[in-house]
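Hi C.,

You asked whether I'd gotten around to modeling the 340-residue construct. I have! Everything is below, sequence then structure, no commentary in between.
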Amino acid sequence: MSLQFRIAELVLQVDDMRDATVAVVHKYDAFLNLLCEERYAFQRDAVRATLRFLASDKYPDLERLARENWNDHEAIRQKHDTLDVYLNKMTLRDRKSISLDLATGTGKSYVMYALAAIALAEGLVDRVLVLCPSLTIEEGLLEKFTALAGNSELSEIMKELGAAVAIPAIKRGNTTVQRGDICIENIHAVYESTGSSIRDSFRGQGARALVLNDEAHHLFSPPDKGLKEWMKFLQNTEFGFRQIVNVTGTPYVDNEYFPDIVFRYGLKQAIADKVVKKPNYKLEDTYQAHDWQKTYAIHQQNWKDYGKEVKPISIVVTQEIVTCVEVWRELVGFLVKKEK
């Protein structure tokens, strides 16, 4: 008979309540209270759990944290055959690296900005590198981080706290990343030999840098050849990255839950708290394969039937990213011709 586990039982507990660590974790409460609305209190909890790990000298790496939780939690021991099997599932166990499970739509970008800003303010790191799997996500993060960095109330709080960096500069990877900067880049651009300053800016600086990986399920379970280079980049001794935080709403490799999660706010909880809305379909149906003309006709009919109450949306799902790009081009071409 196979054993069943509650996911919450597999989340790692960061157990360091010493005065020095707690002082860092709660030093930025005013900043977090302003940044995160009351209904998003879980964002503050996610940041504090991560800071407790990053600021603690009790945990020089993920392996130390994992060994402690192995000893303290029966569910983890039952889930994995041996300690070695458990540790071998942690690719970055020799780094100060952990992951956060935050459901899509719960404001992961706010958590990442808070971690970046506080790590710089506290002097835990000199630079922050935010990596994501696509240009679209990169643009969204740039817009959000730029707005938050330009928030005068947030920067005033940091100044009052004596922050080493009160207002971080938000940059792309095509300019030199200096001390106090947050660089946001999609991982594909990092591999390019031209147009990116990432290698020059972070070469030999990894020990004093924080890397935040967005949509990190692509890091541990890459769907294409390009994303397979992501892990190699993090492990490259040329940079020596030590402090790494992975954020995703789907922390699974196949059916295996990430073994290095230190905070979880799942989709069911988000729906129960009304942070994420549960879809309420006016119409749900499955159609047989057909051309774009019929898809267009269905969409127009939905607008006619339901447009006064809701905004009809047609979603096309593909199995692979490459196929998605091809289908997107076909659909755009059809719409350009259809609607001129």
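If it helps when you're writing up: Residues 81 and 87 are 11 Å apart (CA to CA).

Thanks,
B.
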